[in-house]
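Annotated sample (chain length 140).
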Amino acid sequence: MKPETFLPEDYRPAEDEPFMNDLQLEYFRRKLTVWKEDIMKGSQETLAELANSSRNIPDVADRASEETDRALELRTRDRQRKLISKIDAALRRIENGEFGYCEATGERISLKRLDAHPIATMTLQAQESHERNERVHRDD
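Output written by the structure step:
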């Protein structure tokens, strides 16, 4: 494991610096880690709320409303659980030196795309092509 890279507080990856240099990698590592921690914190809060809300509500409409809210919250948490696995995969790609490169073409993924969607595994063009192919094959 290499030593932690100093990252200035106002740092943003720029196109005019070497692609996936130590600063960029540290920037994305931290961005992904904070995102994951936020999701985990939210999940713990949800579990605590669910444990505390197991009360008997006599009004049928109120009970139905609470059950609907609970089901929606659980679906959201399930999506976030899947997101955590994508974040973990992105963190592994950082460690393996594969982060920032398209898994389909090997080309660089734009810094703008990675900043907006740091779990991206494909360039925008490759992703669009992939989605078009999925739609075509889904209709078969």
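Annotation: The radius of gyration is 20 Å.
Annotation: The chain has a mean pLDDT of 88.
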